[in-house]
Amino acid sequence: MAPFLQTVKSFADVHITDTGVDTPEFLAAAEGVVLLFKLLDNPAFALVVNDLEGNITKVRTRYDSHTTQSTTLELLIHDEQSDKKRPATEGLMWLLRGLSFTYKALHAAQSNPSTELATAFTTGYDGSLKKYHNFVVKGVFALAMKACPQRAGFYTKLAADPDGGAAVPQDKLNEDLNAWLEGLDKIVKGMQKVYKENGYGEV
User: Fold this and answer.
1) Contact between 68 and 100 (Cβ < 8 Å)
2) Per-domain residue ranges for the chain?
3) What are the φ/ψ torsions at residue 17 (nearest 5 degrees)?
4) pLDDT for 90-99, tens place per residue?
5) I need a surface site. Which of 52, 85, 191, 195 has the fewest CB within 10 A?
6) Rounded distance between C-alpha atoms, residue 30 and residue 180, angstroms
7) What is the mean pLDDT of residues 51-73?
8) Strands 20-21, 16-17: parallel, antiparallel or unpaired by DSSP?
9) Per the database record, which ranges form the Glycolipid transfer protein domain (predicted)?
């Protein structure tokens, strides 16, 4: 194996063309986010993991059944608008909300080296998913934020090679993580615009 960010698809490497965001590449990168939350090793984040996996499945199901019409996210949701039910459009909307939470949480952590993950993830949640959740779900997330691991331990996991190889230097880790986050933010903001301009819902 290799250090974490070298084993998952970076959002920085997801192709964006005139027709939109490459669907299979985006889904591969989104699956990396699931693995990232699993790396946190926090049972309280099971809700986040299940939500991400469920919404990835909805988008992938549409892609697999309508591949030629779904090569990009934009084409996929546009094609589904003619259907009575639109599970992929809704699934992608919630997936993008979860990715926005991920971006804002990790961006908060990257912006201030002294910020602990509990604080960074609370900041990310308050600025993304919180407004869409009811009282019960907000409580579950509040518990998850408090149960975040220590920052140092998490970053050590990100840098480490599980097979005992050399860990990624901190400068390289920050470079890769920042590129991953910038790519993620670009896609989320672009898709937020697509949803809003076409009346697909609020991301």
Assistant:
1) no
2) 22-198
3) -115, -170
4) 999 999 999 9
5) 85
6) 11
7) 97
8) antiparallel
9) 21-159
> How far apart are the C-alpha atoms of 69 and 72, rounded to whole Å?
8
What is the homologous superfamily of the domain 22-198 according to CATH?
Answer: Glycolipid transfer protein (1.10.3520.10)
List, as own/partner pairs, every contact residues 84-89 make where C-beta atoms lie below 8 angstroms and the sequence separation is at least 24, other chains included.
87/58, 87/61, 87/62, 88/58, 88/59, 88/61, 88/62, 88/63, 89/200, 89/201
Orientation of helix 73-80 relative to helix 170-198, angle to 10°: 30
Residue in this structure with the two tokens 């090793």, named with its chain if needed: 41
Query: Quick one: pLDDT at residue 1?
Result: 60
Q: How many CB atoms lie within 10 A of CB 151?
A: 17
Distance CA 70, CA 40 (A): 32
Question: Strand pairing partners for 17?
Answer: 20
What's the confidence (pLDDT) of residue 93? 97
Q: pTM of the predicted model, to two decimals?
A: 0.94
148-168 residue pLDDT tens: 889 999 999 999 988 878 888
CA 9, CA 117: separation in Å to the nearest integer? 23
- Spell out the residues 6+ positions from residue 119 whose beta carbon is closer than 8 angstroms to its own: 108
Q: What is the pLDDT of residue 146?
A: 85
